Amino acid sequence: MNTRKRLFSLCVGPILFLMVSLGLGKSGFMNYTAAKGLGTALWMIYWWVSRPVDITVTALLPGVINAIFNIVPMEDVISQYASSSIILIFGSCLLTAPWSQIGLDKRISLKALTLIGPSMKSQITVWLLAAVVLSNMMPNVVVVAIFTPIAVSMLAAAGYKDIKNCEVATPILCAIAWGSQVGGAGTPLGGAMNITAISFIEEYTGQEFMYVDWLINMLPYTVIATAVVLVAMLLQPLKTDSLSGTKEYFEECYAQLGPMKKDEKVSLILFIAAMLGSFIRPLYADILPGLVPAYLFLILGFLNFVIVSAEKKEMLLTWDRAQQEVMWGMLLLFAGGLALGQILTGSGANDTIANLIASLHLAGGFETIAIFAIFACVVSEMTNSTVSAAVTLPIVIGVISKLGLNPLPYVFATAMAMNYESLLPVSVRAISVSYGLDPAKLMRKGLPVTVLRMMTAIIVGFISVIILD
């Protein structure tokens, strides 16, 4: 971005805030406090889309704006940057931080990929399914970061080194990015967007939300969306039928790792314990009411700092290593979304928006779900799923509550739509593009897949609302 364009975008954000705050406040359409809350959201959304600063920097705006304009109590905003949801993501990062150093990330991914065959259809199938499965256990951005360099190395071994102009590379890298997005919807461990949704659910209900409930509600969508995306990719024309030596390449790479080391076993056991402990939470919630998944992940992640590595005779994880591996930007982005939600809710902006949408005489049926789904999908494509969750879900809860309906089924339906991004080179796709994927090819191949996937989200979401409501 050139200096003039960046300066223009920097100025438009606060101008939008002032225009909305003063214009809507004076018009009587909403009070000044609600108008400032809406202005904050528009400022953040514009900067998230135009990107005059990094999206993580934009996530700091709720604290900055609220400190100046006193929209809601400051502790309500600042507390979101150290909420239990942030602790959960931080603990998850601590659990997986040693993986790249001890080689567990490569072992897991290569083991899955040794099943791959030489045909392009088998390549697409295995890469996509492997990404779906792994992104159910860890953030989708981590899955893409692990798989993409492996795929690029495989292509190089097969003689394809010019990734940008390589027709073979495009469907493989797209399968990784899109598979991680579909799988990321399946469990709360798939990414910050799901933790954001759970935070809003818990705030609405005033009760702890069990992770197993998310798994049960989202499982039909995950399975159906995986099938839809896979079939859509396999039906697209392929200029190359097969790659030579790919299965042998993965088998050779896996063999070079040797037997599973003690450090890998310990790290994997800690992660599995955290994951299982989160999903069987209903079994011990009454006995240990304070041991919610966030603190279970933190405790087990903390153990990496005190367990001595069998190979290096030092701690499995040092703080210097943690500083490098923890996704601090994602933590701030997620927290900024929660803080924005607090401002929208506390200022009354969400109630005003909910009343406006309710005046459209929505009945809470298919049309309502389609509107929410398209809105969430568009925001996700322009920014990312975490931003989409922060912007759309408070509105969904407000609107459906105004209609006198149970908002939780609609939250799940919207989550199905927001948990997918495939067109623009932002979010996890930025990783694929950084390794050579052509953004134009990403958009061209992603458009039909996106349409089919969004239709799937609307239909499955509608059926879920009928069943759950």
TrEMBL record:
<dbReference type="InterPro" id="IPR004680">
    <property type="entry name" value="Cit_transptr-like_dom"/>
</dbReference>
<dbReference type="GO" id="GO:0022857">
    <property type="term" value="F:transmembrane transporter activity"/>
</dbReference>
<feature type="transmembrane region" description="Helical">
    <location>
        <begin position="81"/>
        <end position="100"/>
    </location>
</feature>
<protein>
    <submittedName>
        <fullName>Solute carrier family 13 (Sodium-dependent dicarboxylate transporter), member 2/3/5</fullName>
    </submittedName>
</protein>
<keyword id="KW-0472">Membrane</keyword>
<keyword id="KW-1133">Transmembrane helix</keyword>
<feature type="domain" description="Citrate transporter-like">
    <location>
        <begin position="46"/>
        <end position="416"/>
    </location>
</feature>
<feature type="transmembrane region" description="Helical">
    <location>
        <begin position="386"/>
        <end position="405"/>
    </location>
</feature>
<feature type="transmembrane region" description="Helical">
    <location>
        <begin position="356"/>
        <end position="379"/>
    </location>
</feature>
<feature type="transmembrane region" description="Helical">
    <location>
        <begin position="266"/>
        <end position="284"/>
    </location>
</feature>
<feature type="transmembrane region" description="Helical">
    <location>
        <begin position="49"/>
        <end position="69"/>
    </location>
</feature>
<feature type="transmembrane region" description="Helical">
    <location>
        <begin position="449"/>
        <end position="468"/>
    </location>
</feature>
<comment type="similarity">
    <text>Belongs to the SLC13A/DASS transporter (TC 2.A.47) family. NADC subfamily.</text>
</comment>
<keyword id="KW-0813">Transport</keyword>
<feature type="transmembrane region" description="Helical">
    <location>
        <begin position="214"/>
        <end position="235"/>
    </location>
</feature>
<keyword id="KW-0812">Transmembrane</keyword>
<feature type="transmembrane region" description="Helical">
    <location>
        <begin position="290"/>
        <end position="310"/>
    </location>
</feature>
<dbReference type="GO" id="GO:0005886">
    <property type="term" value="C:plasma membrane"/>
</dbReference>
<dbReference type="Pfam" id="PF03600">
    <property type="entry name" value="CitMHS"/>
</dbReference>
<feature type="transmembrane region" description="Helical">
    <location>
        <begin position="326"/>
        <end position="344"/>
    </location>
</feature>
